[in-house]
Amino acid sequence: MADQVYFEDLSVGQELPPIKIAPDKQQLVKFAAGSGDFNPLHFDENFPLLKPMGLTENIVHGRFKYAQVGRLVFALAGYKGRVKKFGVSYRGMDMLNKEITAGGVVTAKRQEGGENLVDLDVWTMDVEGKKTTPGTATVALPSRR
Amino acid sequence: MAQVHFEDVKEGDEIPQLKKNCSTQQLVLWAAGSGDFYQIHYDKDFAQATGLKGLIVHGALKNAFLGQLLHDWIGEAGQVRRFGCSYRGMDEPNQDILCRGVVTKKYSEGGKHFVELDVWTEKPDGKKTSPGTALVTLPSKN
Amino acid sequence: MADEFEITDEMRAQIGVDSEPWTYEVTTTSVRMYARGIGTEDPIHYDVDFAKSQGFRSIVAPLGYLGTPVYLPGQNDPTFGFPRRAGGPRLNIPMKGLLDGGTETEYLDVICAGDVLVETSHLADLKLRDSARGKMLFITNESVYKNKETGQVVAKQRLTSIHY
């Protein structure tokens, strides 16, 4: 497990170490199992809605991408920090077997309600560099003081 | 269904059939419930790369269907003591799987009333794909 | 028809009306299955003793876990798992297409296995937009999760769906 990050360790403009994952069909089936979303859009190549949507491959669940951003900010918070809020919009589709990169950048540091808060822009990006899942997050971090 | 009793049953009787037909979504639900994520049950490319014609139904799911067949028949007062089957033939999604059972023996022992059965799953052409046996106890009317 | 769809006052009147509550039991098995599903191997989500050694009540549900359905036959949507319940909005949506628009979660506490949460939801927003695909209806629902034992709010979620 990585070392705990402290409020003083971060600066505005700092990028987080990214998390990469290329979900194969097995991963999407495991996600269906874990999340309870059994929409065949994500694992059945014969699903009738694929063609009308202009798709030749199954697509990744939006919530799977949300969870990758979740992993990113959870790792930043560490066990002593707390993720206060994180949210994304699903602007583009991601395909089966294509690498997804979850990334983030610090946009502000502030104190509120006795907590040391870090605001971030967060996203998942596809292999072409398109941010298909843009969003924001706020993380509370412990202080060294 | 009304509770079945030991006296209602005789050797050679067939128990009520159970028809199943698994969608690919059902196979994924089984993977979720059982924790078996082997790709031959939902990833056609993977299945074909292992030499299969296409997706196949998990053996353990057919075993579970036979379990349901027995559970539905014995009612609240019956008990399944033992059941098992061999996965001899493959079943595919979107095709009927018929679960059937026939009483082979009945006897009383130690105050309990036992019924032995042959159970199996069958394809639409009648081919038995998962032959097996079961031992259940049933309540007596006395 | 979908192209003539308009948001009516009747629909807008449903904004803010709370649904019946729904209970979510956060279990070790469901937390582990969700963690496995998103590809994380952090022991805080799998190992109860480890999680306790780090000061948590039990294993921590990964972020994004909230909303994983507790499925009861006849009471949940069979594919997506969301509970159909009395109260809450009834919108007649003619559009056949459905896409996820966005997810936002606010945490007031950590969610751990063993927690029992009670959730109510209400319609928060309705927006109609014209696009190349025709009319697109954005529906935002807000859910509030409370710890059943303490009554404290532990999280809030805003979920947006796009109907086209």
What would you say this structure looks like, in words?
- Chain A is an alpha+beta fold and 145 residues long.
- Chain A has helices at residues 25-35, 62-77, and strands at residues 19-21, 82-89, 100-112, 115-125, 135-141.
- In chain A, a hairpin with a 2-residue loop joins strand 3 and strand 4 (115-125).
- Chain A is elongated and about 60 Å long.
- Chain B has one domain: Hotdog Thioesterase (Thiol Ester Dehydrase, Chain A).
- Chain B is elongated, with a radius of gyration of 17 Å.
- The model of chain C has no long low-confidence stretch (mean pLDDT 90).
- The interface between A and C is large, with 39 and 38 residues.
- Strand 2 (82-89) of chain A pairs antiparallel with strand 2 of chain C.
> In order across it, which strands form the biggest sheet of chain C?
1-3-4-5-2
- Beta-strand residue fraction of chain C: 25-35%
CATH level-4 homologous superfamily of chain C = Hotdog Thioesterase
Strand order of the largest sheet of chain A: 1-3-4-5-2
> How many domains comprise the coordinates of chain C?
1
Short précis:
The complex is a heterotrimer of chains A (145), B (142) and C (164). With 142 residues, chain B is of the alpha+beta class.
